[in-house]
C-alpha cells in the first residue's frame, strides 16, 4: 500500500511539473526561447530553436498522461526519464549551463535562477527512474516478457 502511494506521489509530481511547463513551451516564453535558441545554435539545428519546445512539450504531455494510467505507467516513466536525461545532459554539456537567466516582463535579463531549473530536472529524472524501476519489477509488462 505504501509503495503504491509513493509511486502515485512521484507520478503526480512529474506530471504536474510537465503540465505546468506547457504554458512556457507553447507560448514562446522568454525562458523557453532562450533555452531552445542556445541549443539550436549549439547543435547547428536552426529548426530546433524554433520548433524544439513544441516537440518537447508534446512529449512531456504524452508522458504525463501515461503516468496517470496505471497500465501505461512504466512507459510514461521511461519517456519521462528520457526527456529529463536529455534536459540534464544539455544543462551539463552544452553552453546552456546550470544557471538559467531570469527575465522580466519585457524580456530583459534581471538575474539567474541559481540552478533551480537544472536541480528540478535532476529531481524529476531521479523520480522517473525510481517509478520505472518500481513499475518494471512490480507489474507484468511487455518489456519484462521480452527480456525474460
Question: What does this entry show, briefly?
Answer:
This protein is mainly α.
General description of the model:
- By secondary structure, the chain is mainly alpha-helical.
- It has one domain.
- 75% of the residues lie in helices and 5% in strands.
- It has helices at 2-26, 30-43, 46-67, 73-93, 116-138, 142-147, and strands spanning 101-103, 109-112.
- Strand 1 (101-103) and strand 2 (109-112) form a beta hairpin.
- Helix 1 (2-26) crosses helix 5 and helix 4 (73-93) packs antiparallel against helix 5 (116-138).
- The longest helix has 25 residues, at 2-26.
- The radius of gyration is 17 Å and the shape is elongated.
- The chain starts with a helix and ends with a helix.
- The model has no long low-confidence stretch (mean pLDDT 95).
- InterPro entries: Methylamine_util_MauE.
- One of its GO terms (biological process) is methylamine metabolic process.
- May be specifically involved in the processing, transport, and/or maturation of the MADH beta-subunit.
- It holds the Pfam family MauE.
